TrEMBL record:
Record InterPro entries: NAD(P)-bd_dom_sf (IPR036291), RCK_C (IPR006037), RCK_C_sf (IPR036721), RCK_N (IPR003148), Trk_Ktr_HKT_K-transport (IPR050721)
Pfam families assigned to the protein according to its UniProt record, in alphabetical order: TrkA_C, TrkA_N
The RCK C-terminal domain, residue ranges: 134-217
Protein name: TrkA family potassium uptake protein
Species name: Filobacillus milosensis
Annotated RCK N-terminal domain residues: 2-117
Highest classification ranks of the organism: Bacteria, Bacillati, Bacillota, Bacilli, Bacillales
Gene Ontology molecular functions: monoatomic cation transmembrane transporter activity
One GO BP annotation of this record: potassium ion transport
Length: 217
């Protein structure tokens, strides 16, 4: 189902979101105050425009009310990011915003941002967890205490069924899927067999996941 997105701020972060949403077939309006940045998104958006995103009347003239989500990806100018978020919330649109730091995040949350994104922080956490263990392929934070990880199955798990491994009872984790090459077994059955080098998609608390990775793998 196609959605309508507006991406405000076309630096590296905003530009990458714009290109990816457009490639997925969504309607994307690209906005920046700098003409050169807008020009780079001409082929990667449904439409693009040089507009001051802190100007409520200018945004209304673009039909912003009809969009599903606005992504505010303004770079170093925190004031413009906050002002743009305020205006968009006044218009009544869902807003996702890139935060520069913790104080910026707190302000964005107080003025009603629907989601605050920390690209560098989130990526730093993911990379740190990958470096922490050779078995961790990827790491996604669900909250402060819960995560989803992709773990490479070792020989210890090879040719054993999920019911035999009994991961939930032993470690408190849930195996959501088993990836084998290009094939993904979503919601595997208790009798499904794990092979060495399979990728297990596992959800649980951070302590439970750590325990499983250290003792169960």
């Amino acid at each position: 189902m196609k959605k309508h997105f507006v991406v405000i701020g076309l630096g590296r972060f905003g530009g990458s979101i714009c290109r990816e949403l457009h490639s997925l077939g969504h309607q994307v309006l690209a906005i920046d105050i700098i003409p050169e940045k807008v020009n780079t998104m001409t082929d990667y958006s449904t439409s693009s425009t040089v507009t001051d995103a802190t100007d409520k009347e200018a945004l209304l003239a673009l039909g912003i009310k009809n969009f599903d989500v606005a992504i505010v990806a303004i770079g170093e100018n925190e004031h413009a990011s906050i002002q743009s978020t305020l205006v968009l919330k006044e218009i009544g649109i869902k807003v996702w915003v890139k935060a520069q730091n913790t104080n910026h995040q707190k302000i964005l949350e107080k003025i009603g941002a629907d989601r605050v994104i920390h690209p560098e922080l989130d990526m730093g956490i993911r990379i740190a967890h990958q470096l922490d263990s050779d078995n961790i392929i990827d790491f996604i934070n669900l909250s402060k205490n819960y995560s989803i990880v992709e773990l490479k199955a070792t020989g210890k798990l090879s040719n054993r069924s999920l019911i035999d491994l009994n991961v939930r009872a032993k470690y408190g984790c849930t195996i959501l899927a088993i990836k084998r090459g290009e094939d993904v077994n979503v919601s595997p059955s208790p009798n499904d067999i794990v092979h060495e080098e399979d990728i297990l998609v596992v959800m649980g608390s951070n302590s439970e996941l750590k325990h499983f990775e250290e003792k169960g793998m």
